[in-house]
Amino acid sequence: MNKKIPASIVGLSLLLTASAGVYAGANLQEIKAYLNGDLKVKVNGQPVQLNDEQGNAILPITYEGNTYLPVRAVAGALKVAVDYDKETSTVLLGEKTEGVAIKTQRFSDSGYSKDKKQTTYANKDYQEVLYDVRDALRSGSFMLFPDKKYQKLVLQIGAVGADIPKIKIEDSQTKALLKEESVAVKDGMKTIEVDISGVKELFIYFEKLQSDAGYVVPLTTSYYK
Predict the structure, then answer these.
(1) Which residues constitute the signal peptide according to the record (predicted)?
(2) Coil, helix or strand at residue 20
(3) pLDDT at residue 25 in the model
(4) Domains and CATH numbers, the chain
(5) Model confidence band, residue 222 (pLDDT cutoffs 50, 70, 90)
(6) pLDDT higher than threshold 90 for residue 43
(7) pLDDT: is 39 or 194 the higher one?
(8) What 3-state class would DSSP assign to 71?
(9) What b/e readout covers 22-34, taking b as 16+ CB neighbours within 10 angstroms?
């Protein structure tokens, strides 16, 4: 049975989702299209359900013989970062051309510091950092929240007082290990790149931090793309 449901939509703005705020544009025209319940989508041979940001199932749109798929839903299925620039009315897919400092996005503020004694590493003042140095043998951790808007994380980490034998960067929701690294004091401020496409929350875990030692993570020079 043909399950095409009439749908009156405004231009193609629905393809990104209303949360992008695109309905305010002046170059829109109303059309009559169909929500196509017959069309199935596969990614790499595997069936996928297209969902909106809230996790609700959504359907492809058929208009004048052409099929249109919601951008955000397809990006999620392909694990490609997607964002919307309201100022320029531009959909952004994949890596951004310019980095976005992680200090401008949400992060767990445990260890957040502007104290120059903690923000200065190898004679450079990073101004804002996550800093964890304590007089106890322990582990350490913090979280970042890219919210599926970015393709890559470029994270800088400096070892303070002793080498850091193991750092794990995980997808907090799926528990998938994205990257495992170590940082030595001799490395200075080490740069680590991680593919974070499709990731909403990141958990960064430090194993076996020594007493009177730890880490410093600059929030100004670590960034998303």
Answers:
(1) 1-24
(2) helix
(3) 54
(4) 4-93 (no CATH), 100-224 (2.60.120.260)
(5) very high
(6) no
(7) 194
(8) helix
(9) beeeeeeeeeebb
Res. 104: pLDDT tops 70: yes
From the list 17, 60, 54, the residue with the least C-alpha distance to 38 is 60
| Residue 222: closest CA among 75, 81, 121 | 121
Q: What's residue 181's pLDDT?
A: 97
Q: Is the dihedral of CA 181, 185, 191, 197 positive or negative?
A: positive
Distance in angstroms (rounded) separating the CA atoms of residues 206 and 219: 17
The encoded tokens of residue 78 equal 């392909």
Average pLDDT of span 119-138: 94
Bridge partners (DSSP) listed for residue 101? 223
Would you say 66 and 59 are in contact if contact means Cβ atoms under 8 Å apart? no
**Distances from the Cα of 152 to the Cαs of 65, 109, 121, 191, 193, in angstroms?**
37, 21, 24, 13, 7
Decide: 87 and 111 in contact? Cβ < 8 Å. no
Bridging pattern class, strands 30-36 and 4-10:
antiparallel
pTM, full prediction: 0.63
CB 81 within 8 A of CB 75: yes
Q: Is 49 exposed, middle or buried (0-12, 13-18, 19+ CB in 10 A)?
A: exposed
